[in-house]
# Entry
Amino acid sequence: MNPQEEIYLHKLTRREFRQRMQSGQLQACILPVAAVEQHLEHLAMEHDWRSVNEVARRVAQRLRPRVLVAQALMVGVSEHHMVHPGTLSLRPGTFLAVVWDLVDSLIRAGFSNILVLNGHGGNIAPARAVWDQLLRQTWRNVHFLSYWDVLTQDDARELLRSGHRLPEDLPGHAQEFETAIALAAFPENVRQEALTDQKDPTPALASPQTGQELLQRIVDRLTEYVKQMISGDRVAPVPPYHP
Ligand SMILES: [Zn+2]
# Structure
C-alpha cells in the first residue's frame, strides 16, 4: 500500500503521518466505537465493531486521501448483556474517559474534524450526556453519530421485512438490520443453523440483498456527512457558556 493512499492511521509510520498532516492533506478522522457482546445465538460477538468498521472503511476509501480511520476502541458499554458470558463491558465512565482521551490524541495530532462513529446502542446515552462538555473543552468539530442515524423511516419501511421502525427500533439487537449487514459484508459471522433454529424468528428475515442496500445508503450519506464536516457546512456548535 502506498502510504499516501493508506486509510488506517495505525498502518502509517510517524514520518508518513507527519508528512500527510503537514501537507494539509488530512482533513478528518473517523474514530469507530463499538462493543463486543452477545448477539443472540447466530451472530459473532464482534458484530458492532465489525459493522461500524466496515462503514468507516468504505467512507474513508471514498474520501481518500483526506480521511483516516483510527481503529482504536473495540469495546463499549454493555452491562445490559453481561448475563451472557463472553460479553466484554466498560463502565460508562471508563468508556467516556477512553473516548475523550482518543479524541484529545487526534486533536493533538492535528485533526480539527473528528467523527466518533458509533456501532452500539449502549454507548449513546453516556456519550450524549457529556458531548456538550467535550465540545466546550476541545473547541473542535467533533461529532458523535451512530451509523444508522443517517437512515430514515422511509428506508426502514422500504427495506426491512420485519416492520422495524426508525429511530426507535434501530439497530435492533441482532435483528433483521444487523443480520442483513453481516450477511452482506462478513457472512462468515452468521451461523446459518442457529439463525433459523432460535426462539426469535425475525433475524431470519434478513437477506444479503437488504444488507447491501442498507450499507450503500449508509455509506453514501455518511460520506456526504463527512464531506460537509470538512467543507465547514456541518459544524458541531460549542454550546453557550453561562454569562
Ligand atoms: Zn449489535
Summary: The radius of gyration is 18 Å.
